[in-house]
Amino acid sequence: MRLILLGPPGAGKGTQAQRLVEKYGIPQLSTGDMLRAAVAAKTPIGLKAKAVMDAGELVSDEIVNAIVAERIDQKDCAKGFILDGYPRTLVQADSVGKMLDERDLALDVVIELVVDDKVLVGRIAKRAEETRAAGKPVRKDDDPAVFPERLREYYKKTAPLIGYYYAKGLLKGVDGMADMDTVTAEIEALLEKSSHRK
Ligand code: AMP
What we know:
Elements: E1 2-6, H1 13-24, E2 28-30, H2 31-40, H3 44-54, H4 61-71, E3 81-84, H5 90-102, E4 109-114, H6 117-133, H7 147-158, H8 160-167, E5 171-175, H9 180-193
Parallel strand pairs: 1-3, 1-4, 2-3, 4-5
Helix pairs in contact: 1-9, 2-3, 4-5
This protein binds adenosine monophosphate.
Adenosine monophosphate binds next to helix 2 and helix 3.
């Protein structure tokens, strides 16, 4: 099973992806996590990406496409994967389409988590508060001052993917404002229905 979780930052893609990993035994490919790991390890990609990420902007298509192309060829992706936070631009969407075509694979479904902006801003503020209360450092891009920039990037560059995948007949929407278990149940119901293509 190959699916994309689409939605604005703070919509709950990461949480839902982790639950699907447990249920279906396929890996979560989060470009955000991969980039944060590269930043922490101070790799050449990490060094390039850090300032862009801290400012809430998007890292270049070239970098993320290369990371994903390498990742999907790893053994644990043979039965499928959950793309979380990728693709985030039309160029990335075309690129992942091409990567899959070249491997004679296809996407089963693209699930959009639909959440109001006000709810997102509230969630991010809460996440920052809880992290601080736990004595941990808050991610720079989770700072309530930077978050609006991430939302702008989403609307400018990522939201067009909703139409892109709708036109391909792959898009399914889920109410991301319902409680977490309900969202999970809805996603699982959609996955049971989505025809398993190649
Ligand atoms: P996330 O944890 O998915 O919100 O990602 C954190 C940050 O990593 C984003 O704000 C971007 O700076 C960068 N990033 C993650 N995924 C991508 C992507 N697919 N394209 C460009 N930048 C990305």
